[in-house]
Amino acid sequence: GYFQKMIATMWVTEKWLHKFPNKKEKYYLVQNYETDFYEPGSIYRTMANATYCQNGIRYVTISRWCQNWLKDRFGQESAYAPNGLNTTAFTWKRRDYTGKIRIIIEGDCGAEHKNVDEAFQIVENLDPDQFEIWYLSYNSSPKDWYRVDHFFQKIPFAQVPKVYHECHILLKTSVLESFSYPPLEMMATGGIAVVRPNGGNAEYLRDGENCLLYDPKNPEEAVACIYRIVEDTELRTKLLEGGKQTAGIRDWKNVKQEILNLYDDSFWNNRENRKYEK
Question: How far apart are CA 159 and CA 30, in angstroms?
């Protein structure tokens, strides 16, 4: 078969851009600093890094954070287009904050960079008579010491919005994300996110406007954030409106043309011309 465009989507697939002979254009969609998926000293770190400095590949990315480190660490120019969300699936639903508050924690606790342990350490400080803890994992089961009232594992993607609809607050504690979807999904469904900031989620999260961010050096601050959301109606209204607007801006229909442009020859030819003009 002949391919007009071949796109690698993780470092382990980048080798096929070189091995498969019958193609015209080579693209590499960089979605994270995948080197940090592995422990220091792992050979996979070196192998992943090697994919970020190849010639003859058009690098594409989904976050300004990725675009910056590709340039700063590897001298690699890349094209950027924002990630989007299917808002017809993640629909908005009003929550009642007068009863028991449901906190949802999302992530694979077996993946170190997801930092799920920190989320469960935080909720240990919440009154169990006032707060219920739901855990959504796409892989691993809860650890023995986790306080979990309801657990959802590997559920079909179509059911994820329904789980969000039943919860008031998302607690997201990842230390490494190129673009963190759960806070955006929670915003779109009418919930509020309390988040540990990182380079990737800074793409769209604004503290006090569409979410609350807590200091990574002081995780206990997240507890105060959760109580503020429950007790401060004015703040809650502001965050809900800001989250709704953010989700609307990120609707696929609003960003799809930017993405399609990245795979158009004229886009890259113009970039090359501008580079030589400089």
Answer: 28
Q: What is the mean pLDDT of the chain?
A: 93
Q: How many residues does the chain have?
A: 278
Structure tokens at 41: 């000293």
Quote the pTM value: 0.86
SS3 125: coil
Residue 277 has pLDDT above 70, yes or no: no
pLDDT tens column, 240-259: 999 999 999 999 999 999 99
> What confidence tens digit (pLDDT) does each residue in 57-71 have?
999 998 899 999 999
The Cα–Cα gap between 211 and 209 comes to: 6
**The token pair that represents 170 in the structure block:** 């998302």
Q: Are strands 192-195 and 3-8 parallel, antiparallel or unpaired?
A: unpaired
Angle at 150 between CA 147 and CA 151, to 5 degrees: 90
Rounded to whole angstroms, the Cα distance separating 86 from 152 reads: 21
Q: Are 36 and 112 in contact (CB under 8 A)?
A: no
Contact 268, 100 (CB under 8 A): no
Give the count of beta carbons closer than 10 Å to the beta carbon of residue 257.
9
Q: In Å, what is the CA distance from 205 to each residue of 129, 194, 208, 232, 245?
A: 30, 10, 9, 20, 12
Alpha helix segments (H runs only) across 124-232: 160-165, 181-188, 221-231
Q: What is the largest CA-CA distance in the chain?
A: 66
Cα distance between residue 77 and residue 30, in whole Å: 12
How many Å apart are CA 17 and CA 27, to the nearest integer?
8
